[in-house]
Each structure stands twice: as structure tokens, then as C-alpha cells.
Amino acid sequence: PDEAGAWPILALREGSVERTGFVLATRGGAVKRIAPVGDQATAAFDLAFESSLVAAKPLALRSANRNQAVEIGGTMQGYSWTLNGRTWGNHQPIAVRKGERIELVLRNASIMGHPMHLHGHHFQVVAIDGRRFAGAVRDTVWLPPMREVTVAFDAANPGTWAFHCHHLYHMATGMMTVVDYAA
């Protein structure tokens, strides 16, 4: 811009009034002090919107060949994040066979939310907290604390594919495994 100015880019912490951010300022732009809290708390990021979505191109209707429980766990004490009680390197692969329909029952037993991401596939959200529906097709799903989301995918892309928390600092401290096609 030709004129001097300052533009704050702010974000509120989920479910709270605390905020953070930065200020973009031109040379000579006056940067005013910004309060560390907002006027009102944001809503918690939950599954209300997810449960309202319907797939434009859902998976073909068929029963799952297998349901695989995946418990998301971990703690800020010691900062260790797990899938089924194991960290990466000591992980238990999710074994699949080409042609199977797999349902992953993702249960978050931790106090933090996790965006769970599967490489090499798209999955469909088919249940939230046990309530079945034909939800969105995606490769990442938000899993709030102490909630359960079930996703289904067709094993149609042989190989070894990462499945992990997309908070990369959670993945780096253990919250990762692989989907592995049987030979």
C-alpha cells in the first residue's frame, strides 16, 4: 500500500477468549497495543458440522469386511501420543487385503482433539459416537476429545500407507501407524 498502516491478524483459542496473532505493518504504520483476550469466547470445535455433511459421491453400499478399533491416546505429561497404546517404531500396522471394506472405529481417549489423516485413500465418515449416517468423503477427520468417529474405506490401493495425527508434533512423538496390504 502507498499509505502507512497496520493490520492485525488474530486468532482466538478454541472455546476460549485468549487470542494470539501478528500485525502486518508498513513502514511508518502505527501499531497499537492489542488486548490478549477477545470480547467473547469462540465455540468449541466439535462434530456438529461434520454430522450434517452428506457425501456427494459416497462409497458403494456394502457391509464392512472388518472393523478395526483405533484408540487415540497420549498425554502432555512426557508428551507422548499413541495409537492403540503404541508409539511409532513400536506401532501395530493395520493389516488389510485388497478388495476389503474396512471400518476404522476411532476413539479419542485423550484430552486433546486430533485431525486423523490416511494417506493413499479416501474414507467416508459413517458414524459419530455410534450414530450411523452416510457422511462426507475425505482423507482427514477431526476427532474431538473423548469422542468416537467411524470411517470406512475400500482397500483398493496396495502398498504401505501412513495413518497419523495431522498435528505434526503429535505424529513426531508417536501418533502414527501404517495401513499395510497383506502380500
- The CATH class assignment of the largest domain is Mainly Beta
Order of helices and strands: EEHEEEEEEEEEEEHE
- How many domains? The number is 2
> The CATH topology of the largest domain, please?
Immunoglobulin-like
Q: What's the rounded overall pLDDT mean?
A: 95
Q: How does CATH name the architecture of the largest domain? A: Sandwich
CATH superfamily of the largest domain: Cupredoxins -  blue copper proteins
Number of strands: 14
- In what range is the share of β-strand residues? 35-45%
Largest sheet, in brief, is: 7 strands, mixed
Are there runs of 5+ residues with pLDDT below 50, and where?
A: none
Name the shape in a single word. elongated
Span of the ends, CA to CA: 60 Å
Residue share in helix: under 10%
What is the overall number of helices? 2
Rg over CA atoms: 20 Å
